Structures are given as structure tokens and as C-alpha cells.
Amino acid sequence: MAHKFSELRARMPPQAQARSAAKAQIMLAEMPLNELRQARGLSQKMLADVLHVQQPSIAKMEKRTDMYLSTLRSHIEAMGGQLEVVARFPDGVVKISNFAELGQPAVA
Amino acid sequence: MAHKFSELRARMPPQAQARSAAKAQIMLAEMPLNELRQARGLSQKMLADVLHVQQPSIAKMEKRTDMYLSTLRSHIEAMGGQLEVVARFPDGVVKISNFAELGQPAVA
């Protein structure tokens, strides 16, 4: 997936690539999936192509407030990222490793 | 949930509380859900009580490699923590905010 993402990026016009890189630098905060996609310089159509789904599926997915971890993982990987599941406690932070190697994504 | 967790902790023998606190300090790394539960000084039975489920459900849940985010969130909150969903990119890290306010957990 990451490979395909790089290909998509390479095909973007230079200005768009630069814009996307600048946005990526300021990504420290929290944002919903649709903003993250835009910050990565990707359209719903591009993401749909990578995931072999139709564009409306991406639109629907970005509005969901609950989903399988495997579905979310595929979505994030299609954007060139990696999913991390973290449990935050008052006295520490733990990365949950159960989901490091998920199988095929569940049907959304 | 966090409140109930505090009550459970308060009822633990002092040595167990100290042991649990010491373990919590070294929780920097990655671990599966069952190890996290043990590090928090909780038994499957205690967690089952907080979540109003039977103990075998906790055992089964801890073996799963995929689940709804809402299910995982309830599980982590029952341990006194907060779920964070993070997308890691080569150039930055983003917290996904779609799942900040989930409704009722999906049936596991």
C-alpha cells in the first residue's frame, strides 16, 4: 500500500507535493480522517483507487465514528501511514500490540 | 468506569498496589491486552465485573486480533485508561479524532 501511495504522490504536481509536505509538518494535533487525507494531499478518488473501492465508500467511511480496527488500518495504510493503538493512563502510555498483524480487513 | 477502577485498586492489598505502581512506571513499550491488564494489577474476573460480562468473555477478547474500536475503548476504559488512535507517517504523527466520542460499544 505504501508503495502505491508513493506512486500517487510522485504523480502529483510539484506545488501540490510542496503544499502537502508543508501541511504534514504541522500535523501535531488531532484531526478527523477526512482532514488527514487532505493534509496528505489525497482526494477521496485517489484513496478509493488504492483501496479498490468506490469513492462513496471513502466518503461514508470518513463519517463513521466506529469501525473494525482492520478497516481503519487499511485506510491509514492506504494513506501511507501506520495505525497505532495506544492506551493512555495517568501514569504512563502503552502501545497495544494485539493488532500489530491483522489479517484481511473485515467488511466495512 | 475509571471510578470503579479506583475502587478496585483501593481494595487491593498494599503490596499488590505497590507492585502494580512499579510495573506501571516501566510501561513504555508495546504489550498485548492481557499483559496490560496484569500490569494494571487486574484479574480477568475484576475486569469482567467492571464490564458486566462473564470472565470467559475477557479471556476471549484478549486473544482477538481484530475488534470494533468501541469494544476496545470500553475494555481500555475499564482498566482506567483512554484509547488513542494514532496514524504514524514518516514525517509526522496524527491523532485520529473520529472516535473520540463513541456511542455504545458494539456487541463483541
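The longest strand of chain B covers residues 82-89.
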